[in-house]
Amino acid sequence: MVAMVNIPETAAPGDIVEVKILISHPMETGFRTGADGNLVPRDIIHELRCLYAGEEVFRAEIFPAIAANPFLGFFLRATETAEVELLWTDEAGQEHSERRTLTVG
Amino acid sequence: MILRAALLAGGLATAAAAEDRRTGYEMMSPELRAMQDDEMSNPGMLWVAEGAALWEAPEGPAGRSCAGCHGEAAQSMAGVAARYPAWDEASGAPVDLSGRIALCRTRHQGAEALEHESRPLLALAAYVARQSDGRPIAPDPDPRLDPWRETGRVLFTARMGQLNLACANCHDDHAGGRLGAAPIPEAHPTGYPQYRLQWEEMGGLHRRFGNCLTGIRAKPFAAGSPDYVALELYLMSRAAGLPLEAPAVRP
């Protein structure tokens, strides 16, 4: 699964930085019918979390109304040099993640 | 002297036409333009990233990758998408960019064929096109392409389907107007393959042709068919000089 993450590499202490993520995903709603007339099974991302230095700083629940290839952006306050980890859960309950290091100072 | 004057007048007319043309990008809302311009929010970049991985991936019995012959795409593929469709010596017919990639796979990699509009082929085409982002469209001057361009022009102006409409009836006569809520563009294929929000995925020009033909209740041609390649040749000649957008975002 391809995902593109954009977090500034460096920040001054106390800076507010924007975290952006674009995930390649069909976000199949489960309400559509396929060519055979049967419902196409739901396949969406259910949840996205962000950990900063191991602590959860952001969480979003995602529903079928979100379009394919979802883009999420949010802000966090840079306090220490640490890893920013983005985790998202797919239809099968499997967790995917992307990590970046934010250097503060 | 007369010839020179005629050439000069011709040149001026072309320059004036270039200023009059409007691309689909210029007709979009500022929000959608911003979405396209920011690499981070442009969903087409997901296909470009996939294409970059496929470019390096060995395929076929020889285990040869695109990069194995072409090297760095940033150098070898720069400007290529702005020139296509081009002449294919072996088949004696023009091919579009996706067609060329598909032929390269079967002929030189010995790998299984990729279908037009399939995800891996769109990803590779998007990655190759990305190397020409912002370059002016420069159609191939090969004279063997001229009869095909003429076929394309005939297709563009031929009335088709139950609604008995030609491409030109909307895209020439009513360009800049609206069809329902949707603005009618001038049919400059400046950003294919492109990410359409309506499709929620990347798609090629031939898929777009199919949409238009279905809209006028005509039977669409097959993606990659010679008729579509001829039409693409004609449209690219009309769009000559306009900047290529790779990947473009459209509503």
TrEMBL record, chain A:
It comes from the Bacteria. Residues 8-99 form the Sulphur oxidation protein SoxZ domain. It holds the Pfam family SoxZ. Gene3D superfamilies: Immunoglobulins. NCBIfam families: SoxZ_true. This is Thiosulfate oxidation carrier complex protein SoxZ. It comes from Rubellimicrobium roseum. The lineage of its organism: Bacteria, Pseudomonadati, Pseudomonadota, Alphaproteobacteria, Rhodobacterales. The gene is soxZ.
UniProtKB/TrEMBL annotation, chain B:
Its cofactor is heme. Its main location: periplasm. This is L-cysteine S-thiosulfotransferase subunit SoxA. Its EC number is 2.8.5.2. It comes from the Bacteria. It is an enzyme of class 2 (transferase). Belongs to the SoxA family. It catalyses: S-sulfanyl-L-cysteinyl-[SoxY protein] + thiosulfate + 2 Fe(III)-[cytochrome c] = S-(2-sulfodisulfanyl)-L-cysteinyl-[SoxY protein] + 2 Fe(II)-[cytochrome c] + 2 H(+); L-cysteinyl-[SoxY protein] + thiosulfate + 2 Fe(III)-[cytochrome c] = S-sulfosulfanyl-L-cysteinyl-[SoxY protein] + 2 Fe(II)-[cytochrome c] + 2 H(+). Keywords: Electron transport, Heme, Iron, Metal-binding, Periplasm, Signal, Transferase, Transport. One of its GO terms (cellular component) is periplasmic space. Heterodimer of SoxA and SoxX. SUPFAM superfamilies: Cytochrome c. Binds 2 heme groups per subunit. Heme c 1 binds at C66, C69, H70, C104. One of its GO terms (biological process) is sulfur oxidation. Residues 50-137 form the Cytochrome c domain. One of its GO terms (molecular function) is metal ion binding. The active site is at C212. It is found in: Periplasm. Substrate binds at R208. It holds the Pfam family SoxA-TsdA_cyt-c. Heme c 2 binds at C167, C170, H171, C212.
